Amino acid sequence: MTNKIIAIVNSSGRQAASVARVAAAVGDHVRAHVNSKDGIVAHELDDLENVTVIEGHLDDRQFVADLFAGAHRAFINTISWGDEVAIGIALADAAKKAGVQHYIYSSMPDHSIYGRGWPGLPMWSVKFMVENYIRQVNNLWSNGIRIGLPATFVYAGIYNNNFTGLEYPLFCMKLQPDGSFRWTAPFHPNQPLPWLDAEHDVGPAVLQIFKDGHRKWSGHRIALAFELLTPLQVCAAFSISLHRPVHYTHSSTINISVPIPPSYHSQLEGIKILFGQHNAPYFGPEITAPDEARSLWAGWRGVEEYAREVFPMEESANGMVWMHDDAETNGNTAG
Fold first, then answer.
1. 68, 98 contact by CB (below 8 A)
2. Per-residue pLDDT tens over the stretch 184-194
3. Over 90: is that where the pLDDT of 333 sits?
4. C-alpha separations of 120 from 96, 187, 191, 221, 271 in Å
5. Could you tell me the pLDDT band of residue 330, with boundaries at 50, 70 and 90?
6. What is the DSSP string of 36-91?
7. Residue 3 clears pLDDT 80, i.e. is over it
8. What residues contact residue 89 under an 8 Å CB cut-off, 6+ apart?
9. Checking DSSP bridges between strand 181-185 and strand 151-156, what pairing results, if any?
10. Checking DSSP bridges between strand 145-146 and strand 141-142, what pairing results, if any?
11. Quick count: other Cβ atoms within 10 Å of Cβ 91?
């Protein structure tokens, strides 16, 4: 795998940045696309050896062609920059034309296809549409020889890093006056949910998929989730790590107290119905976790470790001070 070129789309995002860091560390040449170089992650990647950060727009055909030129592998995680389906199709076509040997696309399910009255989540169903197109490109044959785009599809679990003390919807871990935390969400308290530390674990898992090769993984869907925990179990893990009570409240509503894009508002409305009312499996009925992810990467970081080692640092960066109060209390107790 050493000295291969890996083209990465949306490298300022958690998934893609993780892939870029790990690929560069093992000696691969990373061509990292960003929408703008004006950002902390873009600057960080630009300082790494073996990484070339390229700024551009994915609706620019020449830019996309240059992004894939000479690349052996590609990791794609698109977000809503315009028409995500059109962009996803154009990326796949350009990668095939450039001769990319293994194309890993970060997809998500469309629950509406299962005929159970489940709604499709708008920000996921577009990814599933792109996945279906890539599958068509993957299955192209000529004179008995496959000439398509060898592709693997990864489905990311819920990011551990989604939790925040800030007033963001769905994963606000809200500090209470008594020093405890409370998470309020529409997920059933005993519904198993898949969890992923995207920054820590996506890169190693994806690099192992590349190492195994498309002959093993072409056409496969892989759930990138290393734990299945219910909301009650997640709160218990946080409580152990933070040494304070952490409670879960099951609510049929999602509190939205900050401005959010209309597309995310529609996503949240769908989540309330899909998981809050139907209690649907997160990845749908066909994809299971976490065995396949754990077979790819044994050094994963679970929710409990994240809550202990990372969450306080992220909260401090967000201006929270509760972790400093803990340190003072522990110091006084020790004395």
1. yes
2. 999 999 999 99
3. no
4. 29, 17, 19, 18, 9
5. very low
6. -S-SHHHHHHHTSTTEEEEE--TT-HHHHHHHHTT-SEEEE----SS-HHHHHHHH
7. no
8. 130, 133
9. unpaired
10. antiparallel
11. 25
Helix (H, G, I), strand (E, B) or coil at 312: helix
pLDDT band at 142 (very low <50, low <70, confident <90, very high): low
Region for residue 38 given its phi and psi (left: phi exceeds 0; alpha: psi -120 to 50; beta: otherwise): beta
User: Tokens standing for 209?
Assistant: 């998929």
Q: Phi/psi zone of residue 327: left (φ > 0), alpha (ψ -120 to 50 degrees), beta?
A: alpha
Q: Which residues contact 131 (CB under 8 A, 6 or more apart)?
A: 105, 107, 153
| Pair of tokens at residue 134 | 């890539």
Q: Give me 262's structure tokens.
A: 């209309």
Amino acid at 191: Q
| Predicted local confidence at residue 146, as pLDDT | 54
